[in-house]
Amino acid sequence: MAKLTRQLHKLTKGGNVEWWSLVFDTEAKRFNIEHEWSHTDAWRDARSNNGTADFDINGFLAEGEAPAQAELLRIIESLFQKEGGEWQFTVGLRVKGKADRMVVDAEDALIAALKAKADQPGATIMYVRRSNRRGDTRHPPRPHTEARPLMGAPFDDSEVEGQPSGRRLK
123-144, pLDDT tens digit by residue? Predict the structure, then answer.
C-alpha cells in the first residue's frame, strides 16, 4: 500500500515524542491524519508506551492538536488560493532507469514533488526547481498532453505531430 505522508507537527517533551501527519493512501484514494507517539517513563524502569491512531480530517479538526490543526488548515486553504499564488516547478524524475522532467503548477516545491509522485508512483524524484527561461530553454521539460504514455514507457515524439509528447500537471 503506497502512502504519501506530510508531517504536520512534532511535539517533544522529555522522553515523550508525538507526531501528527497528513497521510494520503494512493490505493484507497483516502486522506487521514495519523497520530504516532512514543512515551518513555524514566522513573519506572524505562517503560515505554508506543502507538499510532488514525483520524478522519473532520474529526481531527474538531478535536486534534492545535499546532497540527493550524498546519492542516494552512494546507487546505492553499488549495483554494488564487492562481497568482502558484509557481511553476520543473520536477526531474527517474522512471525505470530513464530520466524525465515534467512541469507542475504548485504553491511550493514539496507540493510539486507530491503531485509528480502521485502522477508517477513508481518514479524517483531527483530534483524540484522553479521553472526558469534559461534552464528550460537548454533542457525543455515535456508539456502535458492528453495521450500520456504508460509509466516507464519510452516517449515517442511522433504521437502528436508538431508537438512534443510528455506531461504537464496543474
Answer: 999 999 988 767 666 666 665 4
| pTM as predicted | 0.46
The secondary structure of 96-150, three-state, reads CCEEEEEEEEECCHHHHHHHHHHHCCCCEEEEEEECCHHHHHHCCCEECCCCCCC
- For residue 95 the three cell numbers come to 522512471
- The residues with which 14 forms a beta bridge, in sequence order, are none
* CA dist., res. 66 & res. 100, Å (int): 40
- Contact indicator for 158, 145 with CB cutoff of 8 Å: no
Q: pLDDT band for position 165 (50/70/90)?
A: very low
Q: Does position 58 have pLDDT exceeding 50, yes or no?
A: yes
